[in-house]
Amino acid sequence: MKYFCLLLALMLSPPVFAQTGLPPAPLADRQLDDPVKEAAARNLMEELRCLKCQSQSIADSNAPMAGDMRSKVRERIAAGETPEQVRDWLVDRYGAWVTYDPPVSAITWPLWIAPVILLILAIWLARGRFRRKKDNE
Amino acid sequence: MRRWVLWVPLGLFAIFFAAFATGLIMPKDDIIQSRMVGKPMPEFSLPAAIDQRPALASSDLATGKPQLLNIFASWCLPCIAEAPQLLELERAGVDINAIAIRDRQEDITNFLTRWGNPYRRIGSDETSSVQLELGSSGVPETFVIDGNGVITHQHIGDIRKDDVAMLLEKLKEAE
Q1: pTM given for the model
Q2: What transmembrane ranges does the database entry give (chain A) (predicted)?
Q3: Which of B35, B73, B101 sits opposite A94 (nearest CB)?
Q4: Which of A51, A93, A99, B172 has the fewest CB atoms within 10 Å around its CB?
Q5: Rounded distance, CA B146 to CA B18, Å?
């Protein structure tokens, strides 16, 4: 019984082990009342990188800071900002790094050009193949 | 059939190999520098984190004298490691203000009683709101701010023994 009580006490005291004892920010896990705005906020969250756990979006992460960022995104969208304005606000502070949809710049242009080049190359190669077949017939 | 086409797969392999090899060899750099360096401090006003120190607003960070703004939390271990260095900076006559992130009054009081309190003012930022305004991505971080309230330097991570002289230098440059 003593051990059971101890176990129960341990089970009921998660804040002791939590990183911070504070509850999440007000809008971290609470949807906005307006479904259109909530959808816009949600879409944006999936394109914003968590600063603590850098391979996750803030929509996926349980880090307290990701929760704070989600709350901030919802707050700003609820206040009437467009998702692009919120994204720009974060990019102004953290750089293009923070978004999974980075703007075209001197460093990022290959991301857009590479698929086009590969497609052209593939068509060119395929064309060569088809033509050769015909010649053999 | 042109001969050189045969070499294309090998060439592609070499390119991918080079890309992955550099990715493996290069040291991991996942530190995100704030883009707010060189810009004025964003406007904010935070409530006092503890009873013994006054609250912190952005107007307190443009006093005509360069100062440090330390972002810390009682739940953050490296913040304990940097505590002696902050006290040393305070003894050297540096004004240090602080923002406590996601923290409770009693926890901050305990933390400062145990590890020393080098701060003049401490604002409590319970939802990391000012931290996001600053482009700061973790605790601890320390910003050097000039007399006009412009951020001139961001130090990411705990202040080590060797960083003290560097920060004093940065404060001098900010004059």
Answers
A1: 0.80
A2: 107-126
A3: B35
A4: B172
A5: 44
- CB atoms closer than 10 angstroms to residue B62: 16
- State the average pLDDT for chain B: 94
> B96-101 and B122-125: which strand pairing?
parallel
Closest chain B residue by Cα to residue A118? B12
What pLDDT does residue A15 have?
42
Q: B45-173 in CATH: which number?
A: 3.40.30.10
CB contacts < 8 A, A to B, total 63
Q: How far apart are CA A88 and CA B146, in angstroms?
A: 26
pLDDT digits (tens, 9 = 90+) for A67-105: 999 999 999 999 999 999 999 999 999 998 899 988 888
Assigned token pair, B56: 């912190």
Strand B67-72 to strand B96-101: parallel, antiparallel, or no bridges (unpaired)? parallel
The reported pLDDT for the residue numbered A137 is 53
Distance of CA A104 to the CA centre of its chain: 18
Q: Tell me whether the omega of the peptide bond preceding residue A23 falls within 30 degrees of 0, making it cis.
A: no
Predicted confidence (pLDDT) per residue in B108-141, tens digit? 999 999 999 999 999 999 999 999 999 999 899 9
Pick the CATH number of A10-102 from 2.40.10.220, 1.10.1670.10, 1.10.760.10, 1.10.8.640: 1.10.8.640
B36 touches chain A (CB under 8 A): yes
